[in-house]
Amino acid sequence: MRGILEINLNLLATNVEKIRGELPPNVRFLAALKTNAYGLGLEKIASFLGKRRRPMVDGFAVLNVQEALEIRFLDIDLPICILSPILKDELEDLYQAKAIPLISSLEEVNALQCLAQEKQYVQPIHVKIDTGMGRLGVWYEAVDAFFTHIRNCDHLRACGLATHFSSVMSDMAFTQLQLERFQKIVQKYGEADWLNHASSSFGIDRFIDGTNAVRIGTLSFGLPEDNVLVKRLGLESIVRLSMPITLVKCVPAGTKIGYEQTYSLERDTKIAIVSLGYADGIPISLSNHGEVLIHGRRCKIIGRVSMDQLILDVSDLEEVAVSDEVVFFGKQESEEILFSEFVQRAGLLMRAGYMASLSERRIIRKYIPEIFSEDCSSEAKNYQSFFLSI
User: For 7-26, what is each residue's pLDDT tens digit?
Assistant: First the structure.
């Protein structure tokens, strides 16, 4: 592994504290750590947030049963919500994870009822409501029969409601409509001790009325930096991607660089090679116009980004050598390339999930600090059961 994705846990703690300060006192913070904590490392991030006398968050939201088990094996006694449907061959693992699934269909209800009856326990569930996303959840106009069926399942206990907004950053009117649909169902079916969550990271400043929990993912990581809410709360990016130079050489003017000869040198050029490429998650769309930092100065990516190599023009640097650090996003000396700039140059639409595309085999995750205290507070908080809603 030569690439390094640095993850600053101190900044993560500060960001979480600032976000919590934005939330009303009655609103719970569920850390959304799906897809291996968006590529930052589920085990380390969950441990940092939850494995302490006074956890920094009130629970977790993960993609599937496997991620729930991974957190539970860390000996973290916080509620864990599973966002995707449970497959039949995952039912035993769900029992072991002692997690709360978000239910979208009667098939899931019946399978869970059979499991809980066989194991002789009561399985808590949250009912997912489709308020217009058109993806997971019970359609909001068809919930009556669904709740009637659940009430007849003596080994299931509904303890929450959830929905998901489709256009929270682009269509305020439709998001408000989704929230109003959800609120009506909460008012009709919700109970005082239920956990009701609709808004994710970028809706917490507008769309939480009538709910008592939010699912916070990349906002905690300070990403993307150009988001209005990130700026208003003063959040900082916790990530930095770097890689050492592996070769420096001079190439004469007129040489056409890289695959398909897409870049022609107009002068004798000093180039540096970096052994990262699109197989590692570096977007091929950065070919010929991406920038990196070396010695605090910007250098251009020239030629096509190949599978595991890319080429940099370092002619304007007085000194450059093998093993010098190359920064793709993050700070170096007095200069910085924001993650939001990096993904904009690459033309990436789905910015939140980019880190998950960075190869874990060839880009090591380095945490700052490398060792952290699990006892950050002397004030103990007693969580009585995996199954109790918050």
Answer: 999 999 999 999 999 999 99
- Beta strand spans in 310-382 (E): 310-313, 325-332, 335-337, 363-368
> Packing angle between helix 106-119 and helix 143-151, nearest 10 degrees?
10
Site of tokens 């916080």: 78
pLDDT 10s digits, 156-209: 999 999 999 999 888 999 999 999 999 999 999 999 999 999 999 989 988 899
User: How high is the pLDDT of residue 380?
Assistant: 34
Cα torsion 172, 103, 84, 91 to 10°: value is 170
Distance CA 197, CA 217 (A): 14
CA distance linking residue 47 with residue 259, whole number of Å: 44
User: Would you call 42 helix, strand, or coil by DSSP?
Assistant: helix
213: tokens are 């929990």
Cis peptide before 85 (omega within 30 of 0): no
Taken in order of first residue, the domains within the chain and their CATH numbers are 9-223 (3.20.20.10), 239-337 (2.40.37.10)
The pair phi, psi for residue 212, each rounded to 5°, is -130, 20
Q: Are 100 and 71 in contact (CB under 8 A)?
A: no
Note the pLDDT tens digit of each residue in 122-132: 999 999 999 99
Q: Which amino acid is at 307?
A: M
Q: What number of CA atoms fall less than 13 Å from residue 91's CA on the CB side?
A: 16
Q: Which residues pair with 247 in a beta bridge?
A: 273
The stretch 312-334 carries a mean pLDDT of 96
Q: Is the peptide bond before 369 cis (omega within 30 degrees of 0)?
A: yes
Alpha carbons 138 and 159: distance in angstroms, whole number: 16
